[in-house]
Amino acid sequence: MASRLLLQAKLEELCPTVYFQAPPGNEMQFPCILYMRDAGHTEFAGNNPYRFSQRYQVTVIDEDPDSPIPGEVAKLPTCIYDRFYVADNLNHDVFNLYFEENTA
Asked: How far does the chain reach from its first CA to its final CA, in angstroms?
């Protein structure tokens, strides 16, 4: 299974509604987790790439300011909390997560 699909399954264990990239229009249901590819990191040996890690931006969006979902996302390996903001009366907790199949 592709690494992104493993991440999708892992996130669905934390929240029943998970989106890879934002759906068109205002079709999102809350609470939800929205994630997308963000950046990557390549490790080199002898000037040759031998390992690539994909970084995802993972955002928990919830009406509840005391939602337990951000705390569960924060427990994922290689997950780093980035920021919090409120938009349209929804709480957004943003994380950066490097995810590989062996971190599942």
From this structure: 12
Counting every residue written for the chain, the total comes to 104
Spans in the chain with pLDDT lower than 70: 1, 101-104
Question: Exposure of 87 by Cβ count < 10 A (0-12 exposed, 13-18 middle, 19+ buried)?
Answer: exposed
Single pTM value for the model: 0.88
Phi, psi dihedral angles at 92 (to 5 degrees) = -120, 120
Indicate the CATH number of 3-103 among 3.30.2000, 3.30.9, 3.30.70, 3.40.190.
3.30.2000
Residue at 84: amino acid letter: F
Tokens standing for 18?
């998970």
CA atoms within 13 A on the CB side of 103: 17
d(CA 64, CA 19): 19
Q: What is the pLDDT of residue 42?
A: 83
Residue ranges covered by each domain of the chain: 3-103
Q: What pLDDT score was predicted for residue 101?
A: 59
